[in-house]
Design goal:
alpha+beta, Aminoglycoside 3'-phosphotransferase, Chain: A, domain 2, 2 domains, 5-stranded antiparallel β-sheet, two-stranded antiparallel ribbon, 11 strands
């Protein structure tokens, strides 16, 4: 996706400031719904990703980059932003944060069981990283954005059946999700187009823009929502591979296992809410306006295996 147009001249300014080779070619990079991403091919044969942050402030991006550096230091495979002359990880252009990232040459995760198991291991390693205070608690893909949707609906007279459903669920979930579930650093948006994998191994986890301190087990259900389905069908084997890999590093508590169905409902509705905000409220008339309904359809499909580990 690209919301900000970037030409060769602007790209070369960043490349020069990062001490990189000159630009040979620039192309819009597939994937991503909130920022502008370009693939830069350089004269020395290397490739970089140029990202323009369209929805985050410059200071937010600097803090995020600091979080990414810490995460990478703990063995989670993710590209770390290049540093420009002067020591900054971003260049400010027209008030927006621009940055360069290493390009990881691998396809998106396809859902093969070996890659799903390895993804589970990586998620668990992320969850074991101590939070040193730099990770905020606001979850952009969670219920934290729901009150804003309700306020906008009130202001604009734009209540819909979906928003009324969210309103009811918002009140119910305060009681349905146990307050004492383990919390820590989560990715928050583990969909297939944020994960690069090849030959059964995850090569890179991308787009930590929703990273925060939240319920750890939520990352597992989001990863299943984003990577565990084949079209309209849930793949039970993918869930078990994901969970098996995770628990080879960090064992879930009985309370976490028991909460999985409720967390799955919370996460599925949260994905729907994010899509509704983006493609119905922010971009009215978007061709993706109906994408949130795909998540609602999934809620009608029973997933008894989410509780299987508890029952056995």
């Amino acid at each position: 996706m690209a919301y900000t147009e970037v030409g060769a001249e602007a790209a070369n300014v960043l490349l020069s400031a990062a001490g990189s080779a000159e630009l040979l070619d620039i192309n819009i990079l597939a994937g991503g719904w909130a920022n502008s991403n370009y693939l830069l091919s350089l004269t020395d044969g290397s490739r970089l990703v140029l990202k323009v942050w369209n929805e985050r402030s410059v200071e937010d991006v600097r803090m995020l980059n600091s979080c990414i550096e810490l995460i990478a230091q703990h063995g989670v495979p993710t590209p770390v932003p290049l540093i420009f002359e002067g020591g900054d990880s971003v260049m400010v252009v027209d008030g927006l944060a621009w940055m360069l990232l290493p390009f990881v040459d691998a396809p998106w995760l396809t859902g093969d069981l070996a890659s799903m198991r390895h993804l589970g291991e990586i998620i668990a390693r992320l969850h074991l990283i101590p939070d040193d205070g730099r990770f905020g608690e606001f979850y952009h893909m969670g219920t934290d954005i729901w009150p804003d949707l309700f306020e906008r609906a009130d202001t604009n007279g734009a209540w819909s059946p979906f928003l009324r459903l969210l309103e009811a669920e918002y009140a119910r979930m305060a009681e349905a999700i146990p307050a004492g579930l383990p919390r820590g650093i989560i990715h928050g948006d583990l969909f297939q187009d944020n994960i690069l994998a090849d030959l059964g191994r995850v090569k890179a986890v991308l787009d930590f823009e929703d990273v925060c301190s939240n319920i750890l087990a939520n990352d597992l259900v989001v990863a299943f929502i984003g990577c565990g389905w084949d079209g309209d069908e849930p793949v039970e084997e993918r869930w078990h591979a994901l969970l098996g890999g995770y628990e080879s590093v960090r064992v879930l508590s009985a309370e976490e296992h028991a909460a999985m169905p409720e967390l799955y409902r919370y996460a599925t509705l949260s994905v729907a809410a994010w899509r509704y905000r983006k493609f119905v409220m922010d971009l009215p008339g978007s061709e993706h306006a109906g994408r949130y309904k795909l998540m609602l359809d999934r809620l009608e499909i029973p997933l008894p295996f989410l509780l299987r580990e508890v029952e056995e």
